[in-house]
Amino acid sequence: MTGPVASLNTAWFALIGVLWTGYFVLEGFDFGVGILSPLLAADDIDRRITLNAIGPFWDGNEVWLIVAGGATFAAFPTWYATMFSGFYLALFLILVALIVRGAAFEYRAKRDALSWRRTWGAAHAVGSLLPALLWGVAFTDLVRGLDIVRGPHYVGGFAGLVHPIALVGGVASLLVFSLHGAVFLSLKTTGELRRRARRAAAFLAAPALVAVAGLGAWVGVTIAGSSRPGALSGAVPAALVVVALLALGSGGLLIARGREGLAFGTTAGAIVALSAAAFAALFPRVMVSSVTARDSLTVWNAASAHETLLVMTVVAAIFTPFVLAYQAWTYWVFRQRLTRPPAGPGQTAGPSIPGGSPAAVPGDAAPTIPGPSVR
Length: 375
What we know:
Elements: H1 8-40, H2 44-54, H3 58-75, H4 77-86, H5 88-107, H6 114-144, E1 148-149, E2 153-154, H7 164-188, H8 191-224, H9 235-256, H10 260-282, E3 285-287, E4 297-298, H11 306-333, E5 349-352, E6 358-360
Antiparallel strand pairs: 1-2, 3-4, 5-6
């Protein structure tokens, strides 16, 4: 294919979409596990297991966010500047939440006091919940449109970001990520914790499906009458939303039947479909102006020079396969399930696990897992 549609501008828009999709799929289960940890963990050992389930992955998963932001800055600097100035408060809150979440991993084991561990556990939960909510708000705002005027400048203020439809988008992303995390936790654990995670996933499937269906219908009605010169047919994002709904429904049925691996694939597929729907609804725009169509930012008027995009393409083609191979290797190495440690000499037995031996209670007892673990 030749012509504008096959240009580097379009290719980099698609690549940025892939990077955001990878971030939401991988970091999504991190968020979900963090949100659900206080609800699913029966004791401090369970809380340790939930952290160890995502311990080898969470920092690598955040690299996708860094690369997505860097690629946006280099390929579409006007998009980056306008989005970060308009979403300044929301992005600041996300950044603070991610910092708190990272600190929770590091500081939880610095003292043995149970109150200390619970405090950092709560910090980890909040640091997971806020981004899961706010990313949904931000991307719903991008698709719905913002008060952008020629310059380009965002003039809507904070009130322009918290439109009811954006809040529904935040709730939908929170539910989908929580479902994704519950399925992942059921895939990585054993015993009673695994059963609680499966029950949570089965419970979350229906609300997530309803929220996504409602959001898709509302967004579809909102953008149906808007001017979208050069845009893809509205049937494309609509079909992707339907795929996401089918995946969420299938995930709920599969997790109820104990097919955790397939269920994780379907929840990941739902996030892929929803992310693709958002970028398909945007194209060829990168930020939609709700003031006038001519003030929208597109892959043409927000892009860097062709030479810059060409150099970026060569660099990405060289290094991306190595990064993907390393991350795939990490997931393969830490693919085993985690189990509660047995009670050792002089240790007090904790709550018994159906089908297994009593669990140890002391704070330093770590779940059994090959390789390094998070305390």
